[in-house]
Write a structure and sequence with these properties.
Mean pLDDT: 90
Number of helices: 5
Structural class: alpha+beta
CATH topology of the domain at 136-142 and 151-186 and 225-289: Collagenase (Catalytic Domain)
Shape: elongated
Number of strands: 15
Radius of gyration: 38 Å
CATH superfamily of the domain at 136-142 and 151-186 and 225-289: Collagenase (Catalytic Domain)
Helix content: 10-25%
Low-confidence stretches: 5-22
Strand content: 15-25%
Order of helices and strands: HEEEEEEEEEEEHEEEEHHH
Distance between the termini: 141 Å
Length: about 300
């Protein structure tokens, strides 16, 4: 019996062992060593970026890139106001604008090159000043005359903004400070029909200046003038700038001026409410008007 079973057992063993013998042991993939990347090299600053120019409204600043330990660098420029990026200010030069006055401006330069760590460096910051330092402070008050059909609060706020604007009489070195009453100048928002009560030379159609009073016609403040509104690109806010600067200019001692030539900016002391005679409308004193003839 055993002799008959033995061949069968051996056959079964051969059959079960055959796959292992034929295939052999399961191959194991050899370990692949990771490829090592060289660490980025350091860019050394030999001389940081600098800003050249006068930090005053209207002036143009330029920046130097600086000097570094390697050449062939890609350079990115960003001008900063109070540490925050100024939108669109990414060139090598930057003209100081209205929003910069009273704030700090500096430049940020970023240099990069393949195989090197990107490096960012900032220039020292400096505060931006008005065109001129204060030469005189004028105290003024705000008053109304007649029935008010516009916001007096807005009038007060916008007059203060106009008088302190770097483009206005502040560029002549005059600082205007509002007081509750009195002062050297009173700016009046007057009902149109009340304007002539200040002088026979005043009209209910226009604004006027009489003595210490700078009288702003309420209708002109609300609606500007037909000539102003008919011109392309003019705005009500622009008219308000112009009329306050014009009448304040009279208080400062300026008389009316005429257009200096077709296509030129009108002097702020021109009667732009009535027309421009070839000049373009302009709500701000021209540089030639900033040398105020006299102070009251």
């Amino acid at each position: 019996m055993l002799s008959r079973l033995l061949p069968l057992v051996l056959a079964a063993g051969l059959l079960s062992a055959a796959p292992a013998t034929a295939a052999g042991p399961t191959p194991v993939a050899p370990a692949v060593a990771p490829t090592s990347q060289p660490a980025p090299q350091q860019i050394v600053v030999r001389e940081g970026p600098k800003v050249k120019g006068t930090h005053r409204f209207g002036k143009t600043l330029t920046r130097s890139v600086g000097r570094y330990s390697v050449g062939g660098l890609q350079v990115r420029t960003q001008w900063l106001r109070d540490g925050k990026p100024i939108k669109g200010a990414t060139r090598w030069k930057y003209e100081l604008g209205v929003r910069d006055v009273g704030h700090t401006v500096r430049v940020r330069v970023t240099v990069s090159k393949p195989g090197y760590r990107t490096l960012t460096h900032r220039s020292p910051w400096r505060k931006v000043k008005h065109v001129r330092d204060v030469r005189r402070t004028v105290k003024y008050s705000i008053a109304t005359n007649g029935s008010m059909t516009t916001s007096v609060k807005t009038f007060k706020r916008q007059v203060a903004e106009i008088l302190d604007d770097p483009r206005g009489w502040r560029a002549a070195g005059i600082k205007f400070k509002r007081v509750k009453s009195g002062g050297s100048m009173t700016i009046v928002l007057a009902q149109a029909s009340r304007v002539p009560t200040y002088s026979s030379v005043c009209s209910s159609t226009w604004s006027c200046r009489v003595g210490r009073h700078v009288i702003i016609n309420q209708e002109r403040w609300k609606h500007a003038s037909p000539a102003w509104n008919a011109a392309k690109g003019t705005t009500l806010r622009g008219y308000r700038h112009m009329v306050v600067n014009h009448e304040t200019g009279h208080w400062l001692g300026w008389h009316h001026k005429s257009c200096g030539g077709k296509g030129q900016k009108a002097p702020v002391m021109m009667q732009q409410s009535k027309g421009r005679n070839g000049c373009t409308f302009n709500p701000w004193p021209k540089p030639s008007e900033r040398n105020v003839p006299r102070y009251r």
